[in-house]
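As noted in the main text, all predictions were made from sequence alone. Below is one such record, for Membrane protein.
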Amino acid sequence: MAANRSTNADRRARIEEMRRAEQARERRNRILTIGVSAVVVLSLVGFGGWAINKQSEKKDQEAAAAKAPIEGEKDWDAKDLGRNHVETPVTYKMNPPVGGDHHPIWQNCNGDVYDKPLAKNHAVHSLEHGAVWVTYNKKADKGDLDKLSAKVKKTPYSLMSPVDDQSGAIMLSAWGKQVTVDGASDPRVDAFFTKYVNGPQTPEPGAACTGGVDASGQGGKAMGQ
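Prediction:
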């Protein structure tokens, strides 16, 4: 009997020891889990703060770019640019034109790239809607044109086409604004896009850049006049 009592006591002692060991493991696991979770949370908070700061910096840079003057830019007073819709030929004072009377139907400008010259009176209507018009002549480098084409294709409210008789190899125009650039890598390209794609110079902000004249020269009814 005494032997049995001793065996039972030993068994209970081992069970109790195993229980304490299990409880100790559980406590360590909880502490480890809490520690890892804290590190993750702090990392996420830190990353979130960094991302917010970067986003704020980007917005500040864009705002600064939108206000900064662009070297070599030509500017025309909006009061001197007619905005009548006419279906007769228009003679413009600048080439490419940056404003003036124009056709009632605009040229599609939703990132459209054209390989043939456009009717200027349609393109001017696109500028009235807030588009930036990238133009080039035969002196332009093909590599630059490829890069500019890619930029235009991913930018709503922009279009690109050749203008063989323009003075500069590559020129950018918006309503009342124009600059000749040295190439696709010229920092004035990004500055001009940032400042004038549907920018503050736009007479009709938010007006359509689709539903107008397409590459075939065909277009729908005049809208957004």
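Helices lie at 2-67, 120-128, 142-153, 187-196. The chain has a mean pLDDT of 86. These features were considered when defining construct boundaries for the mutagenesis experiments described in Section 2.9.
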